[in-house]
Write a structure and sequence with these properties.
The protein is 8% helix and 45% strand. By secondary structure, the protein is mainly beta. Strands 1, 2, 3, 4, 5, 6 and 7 form a 7-stranded antiparallel β-sheet that branches.
Amino acid sequence: MNIQDHLSRVHEYFSPKVIGEVNDVYVKVAKIKGEDIPWHNHTNEDEAFFILHGELLFEEEGKEPFTMKQGDFYVVKKGVNHRVSSEEECQIMLIENKSTAHTGEVESQVTRSIEEQLK
């Protein structure tokens, strides 16, 4: 599997696409640009971020914002409010339980269902 091939088929920012699965976990890719992701959390699931290309501003409640760069990996623990943004296009890989809702309990214009992520 070539991850760049999968990323070339991602045409909307903040719209993760499932590219594989391992047991009860989805592996997803997404492109991030802008500040459209709302503050949210995942009550029962951790969420892993791996930066494939570019830079991602990561904000987590109770911590100083930090910038993730290509090759960086970070795990957000369940229940922790967070959001991400990027001035320029950033390509990421997400590793999430199959039950993880895109923007947690928060609905916004960028929220995508699992069904939409599987297309």
